[in-house]
Amino acid sequence: MKKTDQILFFAFSVCILFLPLILKESYILHVFVFIGINTMLAIALNLLLGYAGQISLGQGALYGLGAYISAILSAKYGVNPWLGMGVSAVIVSAVAFIVGFPILKLRGHYLAMATLGLGIILYIIFNETVDWTGGPSGFPGIPNLKLGSLTFDNDVANFYLVWFFALITMFLALNLYQSRIGRALRAVSDSEVAARIMGVDAWLLKVKIFAASAFISSLAGSLYAHTVTFIAPASFGFNFSVELLTMVVVGGLGSVFGSFLGAAILTLLPEWLRVFHDFDIVIYGLLLILIMMFMPRGLAGLVSHLKAKVYVESK
Amino acid sequence: MLKVSNVSKNFGGVAALRGVSLTISKGTIAGIIGPNGAGKTTLFNIISGLYPQDEGEVFLEERNISFLSPEKLVRLGLVRTFQNLELFGRMTVLENVMVGLHTKSSSGLLSCALRLPKQRKEEKRIVEEAWKCLELCGLAEVAEKEAASLPLGQGRLLEVARALATEPKIILMDEPAAGLNTRETTGVADLIRKIRDMGITVVLVEHDMELVMEVCDHISVLNLGQKLAEGSPREIQDNSAVINAYLGED
Ligand SMILES: Nc1ncnc2c1ncn2[C@@H]1O[C@H](COP(=O)(O)OP(=O)(O)OP(=O)(O)O)[C@@H](O)[C@H]1O
Ligand SMILES: [Mg+2]
């Protein structure tokens, strides 16, 4: 990790630590629980899209798969939710690993189509296997996570629970960026042929990072299931995959802090845009187009651009 | 060192290579020249494992390397540079060279994400080695620049620096001096000799005849996918078939 990122990460963690003391039991704290979950999901997608340059439109469904496996294990089979969370993550990343081999042979639009297909298939499974998932009407009665006598059933506890995982995710992603594997991923993104000439097994690496992305998404899904205690397929559909894509693009491809910014804005946005109702996907689409046209490096890019400007002018 | 045996390649109706055979001896600078579209880059693409050939075989130190993937070949000591720069544009110059050390390091996904002590030690070593390559190629001053922002001359040098980082036995250079001015070309010539003196075999594809005649120990000429001639620079300069091929084109 770069020195500036280390300092930024430390400062960010401290802010998160004290946030509940400032926000108390407010609605915004409640929203921050979801910002944490979405930060994990955005980073998971960023590993693929921002680091390795590979698109995935199936992220929402991998998130859903983690949520459903956790729900089924804990509510139907009485498995300890912590254990269930780990088992889900292993299963979901194994699925991604296996599916990844054929899918990640594809590039560009074809990869987008294939991951979209994966998302649709899983979405149909969530809807149709009513005995397991409860179908479209949802899956109620998922137990909360517990730690000793502490039950994660209120906003403050959930906030710390989710952000514990989100901060770890951020930390690991930041480490990865400036490392042998992070460079190999970015090399594949910039020129796959040159990366292969340098000895990077691009295909295997892409499959591995897809599996890692699925692992994180699954953890986020489990956290969602256990904090909300009710899940339904609608949360894991195509719309949400596009929302995640928008978060990553708004925040900036390859930027971990950008993913947080993107997640924060896109999680708060619906609260502000209630008036538009059902048109949210149109807003995301517009946002994607505008950012791609005018700010291809997202908010993170804008920040470093402004920093450079201030630096030059102060000279 | 490297032996190409009777290699052919067709792209649809275009016969890019027709039964080309070459032998490149260890420790030499071997030139491959020929008019545009002669098949030089295609030959490199086949040797380096990017394209499968339709016919023929390639041997590296007696070992049959036909159809091996590029990521395997670099581990056997064969690397190449690209005529149309294939740099990692959004990474720094230093990082580009660090990718060249991929096979000389082993940290996996987990140890990278966790930043284990072993990984940190390895990372230090990677940085040190990468700096050596940058210094060798005269790129130390631009180490922290984004690769995409480099002028052509430095971009071509970075292609070489990154390839050298893999510690190759043989390096295939595809037009390392194309588009460079005289001063830059002299720099490239010096660098190529330095590389040969390090014990690395060089295969040089180049249009700059002065450079080729000056540095190469042996030259092969391709024309329309076939080998037209081979010999010492002197012999090639005097070869009438070669002169005709070039004059015919101009
Ligand atoms: N991927 C490809 N698909 C189709 N045709 C190709 C491909 N690569 C090369 N060719 C064709 O094969 C022939 C040889 O091209 P090649 O690039 O090997 O020539 P070259 O000797 O490197 O030329 P130059 O000096 O211009 O670089 C050309 O006719 C070219 O159009
Ligand atoms: Mg060429």
**Overall number of strands of chain A:** 2
Largest sheet of chain A: 2 strands, antiparallel
Total DSSP helices of chain B: 10
Number of domains of chain A: 1
Largest sheet of chain B: 6 strands, mixed
Query: What would you report as the Rg of chain B, rounded to the nearest angstrom?
Result: 19 Å
Share of residues in strands of chain A: under 5%
Low-confidence runs of at least 5 consecutive residues of chain A: none
Descriptors:
heterodimer, A: two-stranded antiparallel ribbon, B: 250 residues, alpha/beta, Rossmann fold, 4-stranded antiparallel sheet, binds adenosine-5'-triphosphate, binds magnesium ion
Summarize the model shown.
Chain A has helices at 3-23, 27-51, 59-77, 81-103, 108-128, 130-133, 155-177, 180-190, 192-197, 202-228, 238-251, 256-272, 280-294, 298-313; strands at residues 146-147, 150-151. Chain A is 77% helix and 1% strand.
How would you describe this structure to a colleague?
The complex is a heterodimer of chains A (315) and B (250). Chain A has 315 residues and is an all-alpha fold. Chain A is 77% helix and 1% strand. Chain A has helices at residues 3-23, 27-51, 59-77, 81-103, 108-128, 130-133, 155-177, 180-190, 192-197, 202-228, 238-251, 256-272, 280-294, 298-313; strands at residues 146-147, 150-151. A two-stranded antiparallel ribbon of chain A has the order 1-2. In chain A, β1 (146-147) and β2 form a beta hairpin. Chain B is an alpha/beta fold and 250 residues long. Chain B has one domain: Rossmann fold. Helices cover 39% and strands 24% of the residues of chain B. Chain B is built from ten helices and ten strands. In chain B, the strands form two sheets. Chain B has a six-stranded mixed beta sheet with strand order 6-7-8-3-9-10, sandwiched between helices. A four-stranded antiparallel beta sheet of chain B has the order 2-1-4-5, covered by helices on one side. In chain B, α3 crosses α5. Chain B starts with a strand and ends with a helix. The model of chain B has no long low-confidence stretch (mean pLDDT 93). At the A-B interface, α7, α8, α9 and α10 of A face α3, α4 and α5 of B. The complex binds adenosine-5'-triphosphate and magnesium ion. The site of magnesium ion (MG) has 4 residues of chain B, from α1. Magnesium ion (MG) binds at residues 40-41, 83, 174 of chain B.
